[in-house]
């Protein structure tokens, strides 16, 4: 990447591929590090550089907010304090620990990786070794290798992309691979190689707490004196990001079928791409054509760009149970139930026994 002095000082946005002069890079690194050491949030995974614990936090933080992750992280580490414990955990324990965080393939990949690490005898100490673990991409490998091993790899996530596009006043589209590639190069040039772990965390922290998507706090930003978008008055226009696919709406029916104290439910296969091993209420696809008797109500649930509206209805015991089986309702809490099944059960409980309906869990899948 070519360094171009004084670019964008005229208030125009920068073309793709611009970055800072070297003297400003050092100034940004120093300001950022001093601010982070002064102002960082005290998060449980910041009290350690143990690669296992950093890895667990980074995987949980994918797709999930910091505040929602904290109780899951603490519960997970109490049950699986090291890689050996994770490698040996039962499927049912693992899914119960992850229930509510969503995107369950993450837990399965972590266990596959944990077994690989135990077999190899130690957590891989290089970027390439970490990147080769199941479920680990460039971002996670850069985070672990810089925080735990002090290796010079820059992290690039949504927060970092936003901060860089504003700092550089660069209109490159952060949703395109070309835009991401260019900002990755800029992040690499900006990396403080003496303190890569703290630098990476500082840039992400700045994006999460100061350089917010809406209403960035420029007045208290440690980098405001060097921020090109602030100087040009273009902060609100950045980052440029093409719109994601519009959501797809779908209506589905879940069947509530009981026999005495038993409930009819089915378990997803271990090789299922979606929530393997989790238990669900049956739908028409499991049981064939059925006549609804009582409608308990509806609830919404979103998965990526799908917006589902689930209707929960009771019906008579069908002639064929398909893959479903009877489970005593008192045993349900010990099973890994999907978030959709839990929502349906809460809905039915509110209808049947309003005062005894179970409370919501901390986060939803
Ligand atoms: S000055 Fe404002 S826009 Fe620029 S990096 Fe700081 S918070 Fe973001």
Give a quick precis of the structure.
This protein has 365 residues and is an alpha+beta fold. The chain has 14 helices and seven strands. The structure holds iron/sulfur cluster.
List keywords for this structure.
binds iron/sulfur cluster, 12% strand, four-stranded antiparallel beta sheet, Nucleoside Triphosphate Pyrophosphohydrolase, single chain, 41% helix, 7 strands, globular, disordered N terminus, Endonuclease III, domain 1, three-stranded mixed beta sheet, 365 residues, alpha+beta, 14 helices
Describe the protein:
It is a single chain. The protein has about 375 residues and is of the alpha+beta class. The two termini are about 40 Å apart. The strands form two sheets. Strands 2, 3, 4 and 7 form a four-stranded antiparallel sheet that branches. Strands 1-6-5 form a three-stranded mixed sheet. The protein has helices at about 20-40, 50-60, 65-80, 85-90, 90-100, 105-120, 125-130, 140-150, 160-165, 175-190, 195-210, 230, 285, 340-350; strands at about 250-255, 260, 260-265, 280, 295-305, 305-315, 325-330. Mean pLDDT is about 90; it is low at about 1-15 and about 360-365. The protein is built from 14 helices and seven strands. The protein folds into two domains: about 20-235, Hypothetical protein, domain 2 (Endonuclease III, domain 1, Orthogonal Bundle); about 250-355, Alpha-Beta Complex (Nucleoside Triphosphate Pyrophosphohydrolase). It is globular, with a radius of gyration of 24 Å. The relative contact order is 0.12. The structure holds iron/sulfur cluster (SF4).
